[in-house]
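Human: I'm a chemist; would you kindly supply sequence and C-alpha cells for a protein?

Assistant:
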Amino acid sequence: MDSVFKALSDKNRRKILNILKEGDMPVKEIHKNFNITLASLSHHLDILKRANLVISERKGQQIIYSLNTSVFEEIMKTFMQFFKQ
C-alpha cells in the first residue's frame, strides 16, 4: 500500500491516471498532455506500474497503458475501513 501512496503523491502521476480514465492509450498519446520528456513520462509510468495502478500490454511496436481497476477497488476498501466504526 505504501507504493500506492507514493505513486499518488505526484501531480504528474495523478494526471496520468486521470488521462487513462478516458481509456487505454499508448505512451505517445499520453505524452501529448504533458510538457515533460518521454524519459520522465516513462519514469512516472514505471512507478505507477510498480504500484500496480496501471498495466501495460505490447501491441506491435506500441505499449498500451490502462488503469488497473482492481487495485483501485482495493484502495477504496482500505479507505472505507478507516471510516467504519
In short: Residues 2-83 form a domain with the Arc Repressor Mutant, subunit A fold (CATH 1.10.10.10). The beta strands are 25-26, 54-59, 62-67.
